[in-house]
Design brief:
Helix content: 25-40%
Structural class: alpha/beta
Number of helices: 5
Number of strands: 8
Order of helices and strands: HHEEHEEEHEEHE
Shape: elongated
Strand content: 15-25%
Largest sheet: 6 strands, mixed
Oligomer: single chain
Distance between the termini: 55 Å
Length: 186
């Protein structure tokens, strides 16, 4: 073996060892490890689920009519049902709303509310309540509401609004791995 080949192998070996040391140091000093597991969370802080749903059927919606237009909540509820959302019975809001829509949600529905925000082209008011229980999202339709966005518009709106962010005072809910389906060979 020539001296040039030995020298090349030594250089490659040193680079490989340096890369390995760099990776180990980066993993040991990772400051975000506790953030992902939720272990750095203060006691009593709500755990927020910021994941966008894979399927609209994972999102439960209750539409409230905050206008004087009769039957609006029923129409929009049917539109959400046709788009594969899980819907609850529509109702009349106790208060009138002037804007496009108000989306009310709690810690369990942060990512899901972000998806619904896209259906209103990010023109809705997001109302987060840390004490709100359950994953059902209430939508109060306002006087400025005209129609839900199309699928293409929703996708474009999701790109514009970006990933869901952690609400103030909340901690990241640990992600549970989905159980993989296994088939018995017997």
């Amino acid at each position: 073996m020539s001296f040039a080949r030995v020298r090349a192998l030594v250089v490659v070996g040193v680079l490989a060892v340096a890369a390995l040391v760099f990776v180990v140091v980066a993993l040991v000093r990772d400051s975000q490890r506790d953030l992902a597991s939720g272990s750095d969370c203060p006691a009593g802080a709500p755990l927020a689920d910021v994941r966008l749903p894979d399927d609209p059927a994972e999102v439960t919606v209750k539409v409230l009519n905050g206008t004087s237009k009769s039957g609006l909540a029923e129409q929009v509820t049917e539109q959400f049902r046709n788009r594969r959302f899980t819907v609850e019975e529509p109702a009349k809001s106790k208060t009138k709303f002037k804007g496009v829509a108000e989306i009310r949600f709690g810690p369990e529905a942060v990512g899901k509310a972000q998806l619904l925000r896209a259906y209103f082209l990010a023109q809705s008011e997001m109302v987060y309540s840390p004490k709100r229980k359950g994953a059902t999202i209430e939508i109060v339709l306002g006087n400025e509401f005209q129609q839900l966005a199309t699928t293409t518009e929703v996708n474009q709106s999701l790109v514009q609004v970006g990933e869901p962010t952690l609400p103030p005072g909340a901690c990241l809910k640990p992600v549970e791995a989905k159980a993989e389906k296994t088939e018995d060979a017997g």
